[in-house]
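Q: Hi! First time doing this. I have a protein sequence and I read that you can turn it into a structure. Is that right? Here it is:
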Amino acid sequence: MKPKHRILIVDDDETALELLKDLLTGDGYIVESALTVQEANELLKQSSFRVLIADLKMPDQSGMELLKHVVRHYPETQVIMLTAHGTIESAVEALKKGAFDYLTKPVRMDELRIAIEKAIAYELMTTRYTFLKEELYKQEQFLYETRNPRLLEIYRTIETLRNINSTVLLLGESGTGKEIIARYIHSTSLRASGSFVPINCGAIPENLIESELFGYEKGAFTDAKQRTKGKLEIADGGTLFLDEIDELPLKAQVALLRFLQDREVIPLGSYRKVPVDVRIVAATNQDLKAKVDAGTFREDLFYRINVIPIHLPPLRERKEDILSLAEWFLKRFQKEYNRPAKEFTEDAKKALLSYHWPGNIRELRNCIDRASILETGEKIDTGSLLIPGNSIRGSFDFTNIGVKPLQEVERAYIHWVLDRFNGNRTRTAKHLGISVRGLRYKLNNEEN
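A: Yes, that's right. Below is the predicted 3D structure, encoded as structure tokens:
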């Protein structure tokens, strides 16, 4: 899906202004216009624009002053300067002050169209840059292959959503791969060229969740040093994944409901309405209807997000997939740690198949991650899997583990304890004798 981008044209020549507006509107853009810099500033306060096209010579203030104002206060807006008296010096000055391009009048529409397309592409690339490394890494985690009938039916359902922008609600136990399925929904849709932006509603402090979602203006609060886009605006043209949506505070639920109705974002500290074209995929491991009955989740929001519910089966009901998933993870971690290729022993395979996996795919992943670090033999055996119930070599045997860097052993042990408590970080931190913040720091360091 190609989102409609907003353009602001500023020129004191009303005839030229209307002509440009008509032509660009015909190209599919949403175009607004201003005859003065003051009018332009008022429009900038009210709405967000991808591109601003401004004449250098204006009656009230110069276009160069407008350029400086936009670069300082609306850095996401790319500026294309126009002038009938172009000189090399003025072009260089405009580019130095932050203009994206500089064209002379009379403007050739083919040149202007190319400049606009490049400006939009540059802005989108800049906005999404912080997510690119994570996106490239996460692409490798797509686990499409399955022999499970329920999951195959889910894939068929997802195929029917390709041309539909309805909100999807993913339901299932913790660790069943809800984010993987959300990424699959995104990658098979018409929004695949846009950003997939995940946000864990339970991992963000209540007082910060709205600024994370909707962004904020400079000075909106003490630490707001510059205007920052929220996750909704960053995901414009793509998909926003709201994990653990049941953890969303009631105040933020109201704001999200308003967005789903109006499809506009108002950053904190601003009156500007920013149109956003984004698909919402939400996920929870809780019974949202029970939370509605308990008064902790809004009923109107529940019906808004529960348009297309998809229930993911737990790993214990996907026995036919366990070994193929384990082998997939093993190959990945061997590559990541630059370890020689290994296989599972028959005992290890039996242990993998007989365990009930309360932590689902996440627990299996951590189990194989740990085994690929700890195993020193030619094959992965039960001792390095550390699966509960396998008493033979089922505890830490330092003779078997051998000499390893402390960081590797610590990482393996942390994930082992985390699995024992089904991913509950509070209980894990308590039993490890560290703070939740300390545990989060250690887990985050693994990803960096």
